[in-house]
Design goal:
Arp2/3 complex 21 kDa subunit ARPC3, globular, 82% helix
Length: 196
């Protein structure tokens, strides 16, 4: 799908606003579109956008929600940078399977890194293996929410891009017909009389 630079900028702004809005509105913990934004950015806008857009949406919404311990924030932002890099694989292979496996992997990466950081940097858990495992155990509901949100938002945003492509492709065809004076009758005649 070819998107011109003006539309890339508008789509990037829309994705940032969407990510911010979904984080600001009431939602299940960790069920946000940030991972989905990384994946659709990589698939449709280009690799660099898969890191830039999620981080901007996070930063702007964190500025409104409130900042927290910088070490834990670093683990969250670092996780999304890794997720942006992981999305490059989906962009390369562009199959339902590669996207699905990558999105599930992204949720697991976020879960492992951020819960490990909470265990390490917060006073809530003993600094033992059992404390780490307890941190992961208490994080399982957040993982479930993130998996559900990541899959749902990724499917929805990919669907939105497919609709955008279909509409813009159809509009381009109409413009071409209009500029050349072709009508659907001319097109039907050409197709029926030139079967090659």
């Amino acid at each position: 799908m070819n998107i011109n630079k003006k539309n890339i900028f508008l789509i990037a702004c829309a994705l940032i606003l969407f990510g911010m809005l979904m984080r600001l509105l009431p939602h299940a913990p960790n069920a946000t579109p940030i991972t989905a934004i990384a994946f659709v950015s990589s698939l449709y806008l280009g690799k660099r956008w898969s890191i830039i857009l999620p981080c901007i949406a996070l930063l702007l919404s964190d500025a409104i929600i409130g900042l927290y311990d910088w070490k834990i924030m670093l683990s969250v932002y670092g996780s999304f940078i890794l997720i942006g890099c992981l999305s490059w694989l989906s962009s390369k292979y562009r199959s339902f399977l590669s996207i699905g496996v990558s999105v599930v992997s992204a949720s697991l990466i976020f879960f492992l890194i951020t819960n490990g950081a909470v265990w390490l940097f917060s006073p809530w858990y003993e600094k033992t293996v059992s404390g780490l495992l307890y941190s992961y155990e208490l994080g399982l509901p957040f993982l479930r929410n993130m998996l559900t949100g990541d899959m749902a938002y990724t499917i929805a945003l990919i669907g939105a891009f497919k609709i955008y492509h279909a509409i813009s492709h159809e509009n381009n065809q109409v413009l071409l017909w209009h500029k050349t004076g072709l009508t659907l009758t001319h097109l039907r005649y050409f197709v029926l009389n030139h079967p090659y």
